Amino acid sequence: MQRIGVFVCHCGTNIAGTVDVVAVAEALKNEPGVVHSAEYQYMCSQAGQDLIKAAIKEHNLSGIVVCSCSPRMHEATFRKTAAAAGLNPYMVEIANIREQCSWIHKDMASGTEKAIILGKAAIAKVNLNTPLTPGESPVTKRALVIGGGIAGIQTALDIADAGFPVDIVETKPTIGGKMAQLDKTFPTLDCAACILTPKMVDVAQNEKIRIFSYSEVVDVRGFVGNFDVTIKKRARYVKEDICTGCGLCTEKCPQKKVPNEFNLGMDNRRAIYIPFAQAVPKVATIDADYCTMLKTGKCGVCAKVCTAGAIDYEAKDEFIEEKYGAVVVATGFNPISMDKFDEFAYNQSKDVITSLEFERLTNAAGPTAGKLLRPSDGEHPHTIVFVQCVGSRCEACAEKGKEYCSKICCMYTAKHAMLTRDKYPDTDVYVFYIDVRTPGKAFDEFYRRAVEEYGVHYIKGMVGKVSPEGNKLKVQASDLIAGKQLHIDADLVVLAAAIEPDKSARGLATMLTASMDTNDFFTEAHPKLRPVESPTAGVFLSGTCQGPKDIPETVSQAGAAASKVIGLLCKDKLTGNPCVAQSDEMMCNGCSSCERVCPYGAITYSDKEFRMPDRTTKIRRVASVNPAVCQGCGACTVACPSGAMDLNGFKNNQIMAEVDAICKM
Amino acid sequence: MQEVMRDKLVAKAKELLTGGVVTRVLGWKRGEFCYDLTPGIFKSADELDKEFDFGDFAAPNLSKYLIDETRKEDGKVAVFMKPCDTYSFNQLLTEHRIDREKVYVIGVPCEGMIDNKKLSAAADGIKNVAVDYENVVVETLWDGNVTVPRESVLAERCLNCKSKKHVALDELVGYEDEITECNRFDEVARLEAMTPEERFEFWQGELSRCIRCNACRDVCPACTCEKCVFDNPSSGVESKAPSDSFEEKMFHIIRAFHVTGRCTDCGECSRVCPQNIPLHLLNRKFIKDINELWGEYQAGAEVGSRAPLVNYTFDDMEPSEAVERGDKNA
User: What is the rounded distance in angstroms from the CA atom of residue A300 to the CA atom of residue A302?
Assistant: First the structure.
């Protein structure tokens, strides 16, 4: 029989406000195994912990139940407390009477009743707890960064700076990401390329960093400290180590009609191409979808002009397997599709563009060499309407758009408006907005300059409709402050499209068993206190894959993710989780269900000889779990048809005891 | 009426035994009554001559018996299998329950088996039975010869036969056939269309007759645990006869869950139920759901296939879709 101590926390009024903590402590006193029950203001405080330690010693407790906040908050705290008093830390159970009880109940009676039930369930479980001892596992001292935008670049540079090898996997032929497509950056208006490309060069020159461009992660196995990752290097039909990046092939390629994705399809590139001048790695890539040689076997111009002999039409996808100790996700964002926003005539007129397209139009390396010209006729636009929040801050029930604020649009639109007025003072610039949001260092000053010094017309209200008429765009909008309808004949309409996580993120999250929110942004381990860690150990988050961010924020988060990775890779051994699966060989029927569902490859089968009651022996195929590899996810315990698999710390009988305790009410 | 006759199978079995290919034969044995064929092991030509039988009552699916038989001694076991039995056999191979090397599978074509419970209801005092394609002529103790249409006494699983093709085979006696089109989910659809109250009443009516004889579990080729949870005193759910209306349903629903994705719909559970409970409908409901939620899946169609519930693919539906669908059906 256990000797159980129950400790009920008030959490100030967080719990005590809607739960009668004294009544809870009193009610739990008579539960089986309970020899001591107490309540206290803040159990997690030093005084609270001392109270627990003293009780463990005084009452010779063999297990404790702390009725407090979520185990995600303080389970570790109380386990340490118990260990300090000589109790096995896995003899501690937390009854979550805060998040799952006091915070969601309004009246004391029902809150108290539920807290008592939760306490009883935890006591029922502790009665069946056994002391557990964790094992250790080694750490592979190499990090993987998925995504080579500014977030991935900064994370990789910081990790490499600490002396650990890093691999960057980037799906595009070059690293650089969205930032490489931008023109100027707010609020200082320095050129994006001027500050990004030196970092890209740093990455290329860093001995600790390998770049797998035109590649993707196709399989992840293992766990923190020991990930086994398969990277698919897509065939680029150009030998990376031989190509000098001279670009001759990209000038001679006869296939000229390939939409240039770097310029968002606003001009064309060749079938063999280098995305932009400062690409890293600076090697050409053949686009197999357009290359005449690859499609029909007739052409071969690039191979003829290549003096280095780097062209290889026979190239195949390569699969690289590598071990990593930590994985950083930096998969970034994309503007959402404008297909559902017919009211803005994006698909009807070339002169309705997204802000990212506007960046390319004003970029010296863009399709117009930096001259702001209308895509339709190449004329200089005299009236430009910027529409904010296109697809951002939509109602939850809306069929299109996102509920969240994309965060960067207010600032880049101010930038676009200001730059336009600066370069082309003869241009009228209107910005339609719901709110202008400028929290950030020197952000509001920046926006006010656009309004006050550059004479940008900021109008609170939304654009209702854009209709192309002749070479004009009739913009119908409302001015909410003046309370009137506006009709503007615009030459160019720029839509601040909402941003969304890159589509690759969802598949990746599944491979990494990392969780996502409903918008497919990666979830952080704690929204305030662990913002760069995913809840999955060893998986870290960098940049916009976690939520909308501007460049300064992305870079600081990237550095933070790097520091977490470094902290992990510095360790030689990781203390494991003793809550691992175990197979009862007497019940196992060898069906392999568990082996197939195990995401970590922790289960193996062997033929074993068993003595039978009638003194014969029988050879049976049975499962065994490698505790160093098992992560305690529990998938095998539910897949096992015989109930032979069980999870230490969450054994079937413990769970059943909890359920029984709840159902007895 | 079976195309292939008993004597042909006996000859094949003798050939394998005398040729040393196998050391024993798993087949059907004459029982107490002419309509009562039971599984049996035959080790000699003599035993085969005396006891082996095959015909319209060779209903038992022999695949499950291979688990114990292959472990008993060395040497191969020859086994006769109807098309639907081979699905169970494959599923057992998938679950590593049988060593394929120790089995010699002889496929037997099947024209459908007669349900002896239906037959007993149609005629009292059965002495002998003669079957042709159209009719079953029953020689009875008291009523002379009673003739009933064959289809009226065919087993439900044969009326809704899902396949006449053997999916596992070392040798075929007779002709080869194809996977059949069937309407086996119609009855499930009818239950789905009921209101929850009606459905509850239906199952309450059926399952309350259960006497917990465990025949369904014992015969089920998917129920092959070393120790069944319902026999395990430490499981906390071990019991005999149900003590209340909840337990009546619990046993069968838990059993259906346990075999989900592994049940080949062989129909043995309903065949052996002494209380005529249509247990196969529970399993078919799960199969229908799996087909609808994750695409067609037939357990045992191939060795090593992974049931959707223990597999993951990127285009799997989201759990929320199942929840919404459940709400609609409720």
Answer: 6
